[in-house]
Design brief:
This protein has 505 residues and is of the alpha+beta class. It contains 18 helices and 14 strands. The strands form 3 sheets. Strands 12-11-1-2-3-13-14 form a 7-stranded antiparallel beta sheet.
Length: 505
C-alpha cells in the first residue's frame, strides 16, 4: 500500500513561528543582552508547539475512513466523525477521527485510531502514559501535577493522573502471570552469583472503610486479617542474589496489598525461585526472615511445591530482630536503658554475632536471671528466653558470616519502606485493594529494574489490528490511511489540514 502525505515540515506553522522567534531574538542582541533563562523558556515553548504539531499529524495518519472494518473477527461500520483531544508527551492535541459500531448492534463504539496507536484510557498516547504512570508511582497525583507543570510539556490534571495507574493495573492484573513469566525469561543469572536469599515481611496500610470490612472477614490461620483502626497488612517479598564475598548483586521486589494467606505473593516468589533454579540449580538457598513462624512456613511451602530438597537450605533469623529481643531481655533484667543494661546488651550482642554458641550464652544468662526474680519482671525475661530457644537453630551468625551469607533482612524491610510506606502511608491516605495495588505493582517493577520490559508488554495490550474489509477481500492496515483528516494542535491558532490519498489498488 502506498500513501502520500502532503505535510511539509518547513511549511508548518510551528516551524514558521520558530523561525520568527529566532530572528526576533537575534535583533534583541543588537541593542541589549537578553536574559538566558527567558530565552531557554521561550525556546522550549516553541519546540513543544512544533512537537505537538508533528505528533498531531502523525496521529492523524492512524485514522481509518472505510465502509467496513474488522477487529478480532467482528465487522464494524462507520457511525460518526468527531474531534478528540489526546494527551501526548508534548501536551494535548486535537485530531478528527472516525468511530465504528458492529452492524445491527448498539454496542460501544470503537475508534481505529486509538486501537492502532494504543491510546490509554481514551486520552493518553503510549509515551505520555508511560511517563504519567512512572511519575505517579513515585509521587501523589497532586505532586505529579506540579512536577509536570514545572517541566512545561504535558500538563495532566491530578484526577487524570489518579485514574491512570488503576486503568493500567487493570490490564496488568489480567495477564500478570503470563507477563511475569515473560519478564523472567528475558533475564539471566549473574555468573558471580553463588547464593540466593528469599525474604517475606509485612507492613500495615490504612484501608478505606468498605475495603477494611471486606478484608476483616478473611481469615488466616484462625485469625482475622484485619489490623488496628482500619489497617491491614500489605506484604513484601524479595529474592536477592549474592556473590562469593557476600555482596548483593541484584534483587527482585514484590509488593501486594492485604490478602488472606498472601497467596499471590507466595505464587510470585515461587515463580521467581523456579525460574532461578532452572538456570542455576547450584545456587545455595537462604531463608531470611524476622522470626514469625508464618513466614518460615510460607517459604518452606514454596520450596516444597517446587520439589526442592531441604538439605542445603539455610534458615537465618534477622540479626537485628534478634538484637531487639536481646535488648528487651537486658532491660527486663537490669532496668530500662540503664548503663548496666546497655553495657550487658553490647557485650551479649558481640557474643551473638562473633562467637560460636552466642545464642546459647544468652539463653543461659536469661535463664539464670529469670530464676532469681518473680512477677512481671520474670514474665518479661521468660518471654525473651522463649524467643531465643525457638530461634536458636537459626542464629549461628559466626558460621553464616564465615560463609559470607547475609544475616540481616534489611533488603525486605527496605522493600516494605520504599514500596509501601513512602507512597501509601502519607498523612490522610486510605486505600482500596485495587488502588493501592496499582501503585505497588509499578513501584515493584521500577525497583526491580523491570520497568522498561514491563511497559513494552503493557503498551502492546492496548493495540489491536484493524482490517479493511473490501467487497471480496480483507487487507490489514500497516501505516496507511484512506481519509482526509483535519488536525487541530491545541497551541496552534491556525487550523492545519492534512491530506492522504486513497489506498492504491
Amino acid at each position: 500500500m502506498k500513501v502520500s502525505h502532503t505535510y511539509e515540515l518547513l511549511e508548518s506553522p510551528a516551524m514558521q513561528r520558530l523561525g520568527q522567534f529566532v530572528r526576533e531574538h537575534e535583533r534583541l542582541w543588537q541593542n541589549t543582552t537578553p536574559g538566558f533563562e527567558q530565552f531557554e523558556r521561550d525556546l522550549h515553548k516553541q519546540m513543544v508547539e512544533l512537537e505537538q504539531e508533528l505528533l498531531a499529524a502523525e496521529l492523524a495518519r492512524y485514522d481509518v475512513d472505510a465502509e467496513q472494518i474488522e477487529v478480532e473477527g467482528v465487522r464494524y461500520h462507520p457511525v460518526w466523525v468527531d474531534t478528540e483531544t489526546y494527551l501526548t508527551a508534548a501536551g494535548e492535541v486535537q485530531v478528527e477521527r472516525h468511530l465504528y459500531r458492529p452492524a445491527g448492534h448498539n454496542a460501544k463504539s470503537i475508534c481505529p485510531l486509538e486501537l492502532r496507536v494504543g491510546i490509554v484510557d481514551g486520552y493518553w498516547t503510549p509515551r505520555a502514559a508511560r511517563q504519567g504512570s512512572f511519575v505517579t508511582a513515585q509521587l501523589t497525583p497532586g505532586d505529579a501535577e506540579s512536577l509536570f507543570g514545572e517541566l512545561g510539556a504535558m500538563s495532566p490534571s491530578r484526577s487524570t493522573l489518579d485514574r491512570l495507574p488503576r486503568e493500567l493495573s487493570r490490564h496488568w492484573e489480567t495477564k500478570r502471570e503470563d507477563w511475569e513469566v515473560a519478564l523472567r525469561a528475558q533475564e539471566t543469572v549473574p555468573e558471580a552469583a553463588v547464593s540466593v536469599a528469599f525474604s517475606l515481611d509485612g507492613v500495615m496500610v490504612p484501608m478505606k472503610a468498605k475495603a477494611a470490612e471486606r478484608l476483616a472477614k478473611q481469615t488466616e490461620a484462625g485469625k482475622h486479617a484485619s489490623g488496628p483502626a482500619g489497617r491491614q497488612e500489605a506484604a513484601c517479598g524479595t529474592v536477592s542474589l549474592y556473590d562469593a564475598e557476600g555482596e548483593r548483586l541484584q534483587t527482585i521486589r514484590y509488593g501486594r496489598m492485604p490478602e488472606s494467606k498472601k497467596v499471590t505473593l507466595q505464587a510470585q516468589l515461587q515463580g521467581e525461585i523456579e525460574a532461578l533454579f532452572a538456570l542455576r540449580p547450584d545456587l545455595r538457598r537462604v531463608h531470611l526472615a524476622d522470626g514469625a513462624e508464618t513466614n518460615w512456613d510460607r517459604l518452606a511451602e514454596i520450596e516444597a511445591a517446587l520439589g526442592l530438597p531441604s538439605e542445603g537450605r539455610v534458615k537465618i533469623v534477622d540479626f537485628y530482630h534478634g538484637c531487639d529481643h536481646l535488648k528487651n531481655g537486658c532491660d527486663a533484667i537490669w532496668g530500662e536503658s540503664t548503663p548496666r543494661s546497655r553495657a550487658e546488651f553490647l557485650r551479649l550482642k558481640t557474643f551473638l554475632k562473633e562467637e560460636d554458641g552466642g545464642a546459647d550464652r544468652i539463653i543461659r544468662t536469661f535463664k539464670h536471671h529469670a530464676s532469681r526474680t518473680t512477677g512481671n519482671c520474670r514474665q518479661r525475661i521468660e518471654a525473651e528466653l522463649t524467643y531465643f530457644r525457638n530461634q536458636r537453630p537459626r542464629m549461628n551468625y559466626p558460621e553464616y558470616l564465615r560463609q559470607n551469607l547475609p544475616i540481616a533482612s534489611g533488603v525486605v524491610e527496605a522493600a516494605c519502606k520504599t514500596l509501601v510506606t513512602q507512597r501509601l502511608k502519607r498523612s490522610g491516605m486510605a486505600w482500596t485493594v485495587a488502588g493501592g495495588q496499582a501503585l505497588l505493582t509499578f513501584r515493584s517493577l521500577i525497583q526491580s529494574q523491570r520497568w522498561s520490559s514491563a511497559w513494552t508488554l503493557l503498551a502492546a495490550d492496548f493495540r489491536q489490528t484493524i482490517t479493511l474489509v473490501k467487497p471480496a477481500t480483507a487487507t490489514p492496515f500497516q501505516n496507511s490511511l484512506a481519509a482526509r483528516v483535519v488536525v487541530h494542535p491545541v497551541t496552534s491558532t491556525k487550523q492545519i489540514v492534512y491530506h492522504a490519498l486513497p489506498l492504491a489498488a
